[in-house]
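pasting for ref
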Amino acid sequence: MKQAPDFSLPDQDGAMHSLKDYTGKWLVVYFYPKDDTPGCTKEACNFRDARDAIAEYGNAEVVGISKDNVRSHKKFADKHKLNFTLLSDQDHTTIQAFGAWQPKKFMGREFMGIMRNTYLINPEGKIAKSYESVTPESHAGEIISDLKELQAA
């Protein structure tokens, strides 16, 4: 297992968070393209609704990261009553470190952007599982299933 990249980023309330803050817990870090867009809203609400079930396994926490600013995250979190942390990575340093900043195509145009990737990080800070280009509506269920399996191992 590979060590997860360290980060130090502000949340929707301006408080700083880093990887070491989550030592001893399982951590679900998910990257998403933009606050309050249809797919990102579905994914965030899916994590919101599954939050208690995710927390049952290894006291797991959920963190969403995009390059939107703190104010945008605050509006998004309040509007959808999100019950987990959103981190702002405006210069996409952490997004790149995790490998979620990649070439994308839209209407024949290629550009760099955030892939909808998730990383399950174990209590020692190592990446236990990676998920690439996930389905927003059902992804949290997959995480719960994998947490159960990893806890049993």
